[in-house]
Structure formats: C-alpha cells, structure tokens
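How a chain folds remains the central question behind the approach discussed here. No coordinates are needed to read the tokens, only the vocabulary itself. For completeness, the protein is quoted in full, as a sequence line and a line of structure tokens:
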Amino acid sequence: MQHRMVEDLMTRGVVRVRRDTPFKKIAQLLSDNGVAAVPVVDDLGRPVGIVSEADLLSKVAAQPDPAGLLPLPELTGREPGRADAATAEELMTAPPVTARPEWTVVEAARLMDAHRIKRLPVVDESGVLVGIVSRSDLLRIFLRRDEAIHEEVAGEVLNRTLGLTPADVTVTVTDGRVVLKGSVAARSLIPVVERLCRGVDGVVSVATDLIYRSDDTSGAPGAR
C-alpha cells in the first residue's frame, strides 16, 4: 500500500515569472493561463516567491480612491508599500513554501494546512522548480473509482498485508465509503484494519462490522 506521490498529481508545465516581470504582464499571464498564482524564479530556475491574485489585489486595494471619497484602508506589514509595487519581486510573497516530487499526498496536504496556503511549488534536489501542486490536485485522490479503492483495500491491505481472505472479511465501497464485515482472529486486529483502510487514497470513511475469535486486549479469550 502506497500513497500517491506529489509527482503523480503536480502540474509540470509551470507558468512562471522573473523578479523583474511587471505587474501588467503578471496579470495577463494569470488571465491567459487560467491560474491564480505564479512562482517567481531566479536565474537558475529556483523559486524565490509566489505572486497570486491576492497579491495583485493588495496593490489595487492600496490605491487611493480616484474620486477622493473613500479613505485608505488600514494597512499593516508589507501592505503599505503595495501601492507602489510594480514588479514580481515587489509583489511576491516570500520565501515560498515548497514540496518535493517524492512526497506523499499526505505530506503535502499537511504542509499546506500548517501554512494555510493553496499551492506548493515543487522543487528537485537542486531546488529547481519542476512543478506545482494545488489543493485541488491533492483532492483528486477522492475521484478514484470505487472499484480501484475496493481492489486496494481487499488486495493490498486485507490480503497481502494482513493475510485476510474474502472468506474472512468482505469489502463494499460506495462513493469512497468502505464497509467491512466478517471476522478476524484477535480483537486487537480490528483497529489495525480500520487504520490501514483509512490510509488508502480516496477512502472517505470506514465502517466495520467485525467479530473477533480471541480477545487479546484483556487477557481473556472470547468472542464478540
């Protein structure tokens, strides 16, 4: 059983800009390519920041009202200088949080969640940009067909990892929801089965109706 890798889901043909790319050029690239952000790279192709639609809007929001009727909003941090920002280097959020191609979907998702970001530039061992992965890319694992999930749960998890056959435990999968019914040798095996099944890409939930032939959690044999 193996989680999908970032390299399996990332976009490889990444739209990128240089430090000196002007504001209007960035806005045009976002519009033409249907993306919400672009990495900013140095001369070696290593990401040094990201410019997003939010960064461009921060500049717009920092502009005074042409009619002079609206007061300037209260700006903090880097925002007061956004009104004069004209290039990618002046607009970008830096340093960028990056991922590696060999990371699992879980690793990338945890990093995004920890930093509250929507995308990760993906870099190789030299730090060179090789792709970009977004929240929507990671969520694609939940588009896996029920048949593929069933095959992995029954074949990889139950049979090859735990040595259980269809005669022991049956598996049904509906819209990513896994239901397990049957019997296992020991009570302590039930949470192991549940945990491994939840770790399969595309699984939304796991419900079990399993009996055990021996209660190895209390020292007293028995069945439920």
Residues 144-214 form a domain with the Histidine-containing Protein; Chain: A; fold (CATH 3.30.1340.30). The beta strands are 17-18, 37-41, 47-52, 119-123, 129-134, 169-174, 177-186, 205-214. The chain has a mean pLDDT of 89. The chain has two domains: 6-141, 144-214.
